[in-house]
Amino acid sequence: MNDAVRELYSENRYPDLSHPVTDISRLWVSARAGGLERLPEPAACRVLELGCAGGQNLLPLAARYPKSEFTGLDYSDTAIRKARQASYEAGLHNIRFEAADLEHWRPSHPCDFLIAHGVFSWVPDEVKTRVLDLCGQVLSDNGVACISYNTLPGWSLRSGLVPLVKALANNPAAAGLGDSVESVAASLADMAGGGTAHAANVQAICRDMVKKGPTVLPFDDFAPVCDAVYFAQFASWAGERGLRYLGEARLQDNLPDGISPHAFDRLAPLATDPILLQQTLDLLSGRTHRNSLFCRVDAMLEDGMTTGVVMNFAAGRGLVELPPVESRVVGLFRQLLEEIAPSCLAMQELVERTADRLGAGWEPSRHGRELTGWIYQAARLGGIELRSEPLEIRSHSMAAPRLSALNLHFAAAGRPVVDARHFPCRFPDGHERLLAAMNGSRAADELAEHARAEFPELDFHRWLAHLAERGIVE
Ligand SMILES: C[S@@+](CC[C@H](N)C(=O)[O-])C[C@H]1O[C@@H](n2cnc3c(N)ncnc32)[C@H](O)[C@@H]1O
C-alpha cells in the first residue's frame, strides 16, 4: 500500500461531498437506458460504496430509501467514525460502515448498485486491480457498478502541468507567480492568454485548478497518485472481470460536449462497436473524466429506451434550456413539466395529463412513440430529468421550517446539507447555525428575527424559499 495515499486520508481532511452523478435514482434510469432490464429499483436494493469517506454521499441515499440496505467501506477510521456518528444521529438503521482496506476486504453479500467515486485513479495499481476485481465479484446478476476515473488523451495535458505548477510554486525565482499551487495556476491562466487552442486549454485547466482550491486539489490533481487511462483500456480490464460497459452514469455524458453535431451521425455505424465509438468520442472531445456504468456480461439486456421502458420513469424539468419544438404534443408535455417544476411526476401521469390536454386528437400509439422519442433525446441533452420515482417538492416555505434529521445533523456538525436531488449545498460561513435551528419548533418569523441579528445582509425569507425549492426544508 502506498503510504503517501494512506497518510493523506488518515488525517481525514477530505471534504464532505455528495455526488449527484451517483444518485441511484438517476443511475437506475441510465442503466435501464443501457438495456439493463432487471436492475432492482432503488427503493428495494443493496448498495455498496467503496471509498465512502465520511459517508456524505451514501447517508442521504440511505435516508431517502429506508427499505434498501447500504454499506460504506473506507480505510480511514476517522472518516468511518464520523459516518457512523451521522447515521446514529439521523436514526438510520439501513446503513453500515466498515473501516477496512479494500485490498483485503471480503464482501459478505452481493450488491445491486456499486459506487466507486473518486477512488480508481487516486489509488496505487494493486488497489485499482482490487476495485475492478470487487466489481466482478460482488455485483448481483442484474446489478450495476458506477466507477469514476480520469481519461486519456484528455487528461494528459493536465498531468503534464501538475509537476510544472508544483516546481514553480516551490522555486524562489518564480516568487512573482505566487507561492501556492493555486496562485501559480492563477498566474499561468492569466499569462496563457487563450489566443491559440493550446493556450485556451492551459487557461481552462489552470482556472479549474483555482476553482478546486486548496480543499480539493491535494486529493485530486495534486494527489500522491492521480492516474488516467484510455477508455478502451479500462473497458478491457473490466471485460477481463466479466463486466460489460453499459453507458455513462449521466445520460447526457453519452454525448460529450463540444463535438460537431454531424459527428454523431457520421459515427452512428460504430454503434456496433461501442468501445471504439466511445474511445473516438473521447479523442474528439478531450474528455478528462468518466463515470461509467458496468454490468455483468451475462446480465439480461433489452433494447434500451423503448416506450415501455420510458414509462417506468418519473420526469421533471432539466437544467439545460431546450430549443423550441414544432410538435403540439411535445409542447403540451413541456408546458406540464414547467408547471410542476421543481417536482417530478410519474411518466404515466404526465402522459395521461398531456393526452387530456390534447383531447380528441390524442392517438395513444403514435403520440406515445413521439413523446418517448423526444423524452429520450431531451434527457440526453440534459433538458429533462429522468428518475426512478416521482419527487414532490413543495416550493413554498413552511410556517415552521424543518430539515430532515440527517440534514439537521450535517448542519450542526458544520457539514454541507444535501438537497433532494443529491446536490451538496454550500452557504456562507455561519449559515449552518441557522439551518441547525430549523427543526420544526421555531416559526419562520422567529428564525428571520434571529437571522437579522446575526446576518443583517441575509434576505431570510428569500433564502428559505430557495431552501424549499431545493427540497431541503419541509
Ligand atoms: C478521493 S477520496 C473519495 C471519497 C468519495 N468517494 C468522494 O468521491 O468524494 C478517496 C477515498 O478512498 C479511500 N481509500 C483509498 N484507498 C483505500 C483502500 N485501499 N481501502 C479503503 N479505502 C480507501 C480514502 O480513505 C478516501 O476516503
UniProtKB/TrEMBL annotation:
Claim: Methyltransferase is one of the keywords in the record: yes
GO biological process, one term: methylation
Keyword line: Methyltransferase, Transferase
Methyltransferase regulatory domain boundaries: 219-296
Domain Methyltransferase: 47-143
Keyword match Transferase: yes
GO MF annotation: an example: methyltransferase activity
Listed name of the protein: Class I SAM-dependent methyltransferase
Organism: Luteolibacter arcticus
Lineage: Bacteria, Pseudomonadati, Verrucomicrobiota, Verrucomicrobiia, Verrucomicrobiales
